[in-house]
């Protein structure tokens, strides 16, 4: 059994916490003011740099290794989220249909909310059926900013 370590980095929307086991990320999410900053490594620095590159419009996906811990249903939803192209959105209903459970819209929203890899698994690309921005754990301002960033850079990074 390996030890889970973490590192905290500055993030335009607060702080970013990266949990890792060896060279594999297990958690990548926005956090409030941390009590302490954990231990940064060359590996966590690389994962963080990929996020910075994404935020600067230099990359549209991530290459570092990660492991998703969740229920079978959550994993299915997170895989579907990973297939939403950069610069595009899908509704919760479309994700429910994509995973073969068209009546599970609310459960898709709950799985979205439990996403342990914010930005990496692009739950910010999921919107309400009416096109409105709803339900983002990082806050609607962050969701709006990420979607705006992708809209501005989607043609450049194709």
From TrEMBL:
Give the first-level EC class, as a single word: transferase
Catalytic residues? Answer: 123 (nucleophile)
> Cross-referenced Gene3D superfamilies, in alphabetical order?
Winged helix-like DNA-binding domain superfamily/Winged helix DNA-binding domain
At the highest ranks, the source species' classification is: Bacteria, Pseudomonadati, Pseudomonadota, Betaproteobacteria, Burkholderiales
Subcellular localization? Cytoplasm
Keyword Membrane among record annotations: no
Question: What terms describe the molecular function in GO for this protein?
Answer: methylated-DNA-[protein]-cysteine S-methyltransferase activity
Q: Which UniProt keywords apply?
A: Cytoplasm, DNA damage, DNA repair, Methyltransferase, Transferase
Anything else known: This enzyme catalyzes only one turnover and therefore is not strictly catalytic. According to one definition, an enzyme is a biocatalyst that acts repeatedly and over many reaction cycles.
Can you quote a single GO CC term? cytoplasm
Q: What is this protein called?
A: Methylated-DNA--protein-cysteine methyltransferase
Q: What is its EC number?
A: 2.1.1.63
Q: Where is the Methylated-DNA-[protein]-cysteine S-methyltransferase DNA binding domain?
A: 72-151
Which organism's genome codes for this protein? Pelistega suis
Identify the InterPro entries for this entry: MethylDNA_cys_MeTrfase_AS, MethylDNA_cys_MeTrfase_DNA-bd, MethylDNA_cys_MeTrfase_DNAb, MGMT, MGMT_N_sf, WH-like_DNA-bd_sf
């Amino acid at each position: 059994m390996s030890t889970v370590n973490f590192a905290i980095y500055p993030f335009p929307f607060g702080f970013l916490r990266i949990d890792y086991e060896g060279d594999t990320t297990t958690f990548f999410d926005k956090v409030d003011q941390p009590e302490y900053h954990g231990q940064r490594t060359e590996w966590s620095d690389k994962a963080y740099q990929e996020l910075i590159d994404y935020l600067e419009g230099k990359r549209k996906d991530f290459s570092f290794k990660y492991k998703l811990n969740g229920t079978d249903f959550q994993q299915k939803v997170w895989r579907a989220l990973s297939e939403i192209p950069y610069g595009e959105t899908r509704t919760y209903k479309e994700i429910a249909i994509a995973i073969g459970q068209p009546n599970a819209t609310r459960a898709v929203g709950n799985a979205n909310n439990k996403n342990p890899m914010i930005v990496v698994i692009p739950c910010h690309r999921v919107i309400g059926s009416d096109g409105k921005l709803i339900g983002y754990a990082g806050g609607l301002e962050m969701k709006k900013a990420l979607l705006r960033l992708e809209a501005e850079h989607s043609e450049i990074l194709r």
